[in-house]
Input
Amino acid sequence: MDQDNAYTLLHLTDTHLMADAKSTLLGYNTADSFQKTLATAVTEQPPADLILLTGDLAQEPTAESYRFLLDALSPLQIPCLCLPGNHDDLALMQATLATHLVHCRKHVILGPWQLIALNSQVQGSPAGFLADEELSFLQQRLQAHPDHHSVVAVHHHCLPTHSAWMDSMMIANHEAFLAVLAQHPRAKLVVNGHIHQAMDRMSDATRVLATPSTCFQFAPYSSAFKIDGMSPSYRTIQLFSDGIVATQVHYLSERAAGLITDKHGY
Ligand SMILES: [Fe+2]
Output
């Protein structure tokens, strides 16, 4: 494959920023771990065409937590697309993450690819659901760009993790969502957060990727809530003009993760 023809995404998710950047969550300083993960990603990887952040960007959503994110992302001079998770305040996100480069847009064209961002948040609930307008928007974008390959980004998961506590929160109408994608052979990829662990599976012809968090990770196949000791993480995604996707999950080394204080589970 010719890497010169690829668009490269950096996927960072579930940053869980606190209102006070000095606060910790489950023993992690989430602000430090996000900054360390971001710095590692932009240092270790070739320049990205877009950074994708798929929700739970704030654990305690305030203007300050989104301002912290904006201040970290803006100097990179890379387009950054942010979408909401169950912990986020979309109105605050849209008010703060609203620059030319750092934004909450729902549709971006990347050459022969389009990126469609959906909101799976249910007010007052940690569970996911795609409202009629979100599914209609997806269908409309797919129909409007039949010659583009598509990446659909969304916070919640559409395939089970086989962790009972986690799967109680998956997109409740995931069958309707996947049925829309199955109608469109160029709907190549779904990218989600929320599950704090890696996933790489197929649903018909659509590849479904999840990326671990920039802070703590959840233990796979655990029936109840459980943190494991995996490091903060990010994913690289290369989108080739022929529709091929290449991807890799990168975990920070113990040394690279050294800014994390009071580590939990190590
Ligand atoms: Fe979440």
Summary: The domain at 3-259 is CATH 3.60.21.10 (Purple Acid Phosphatase; chain A, domain 2). The first strand starts at residue 7 and ends at 12.
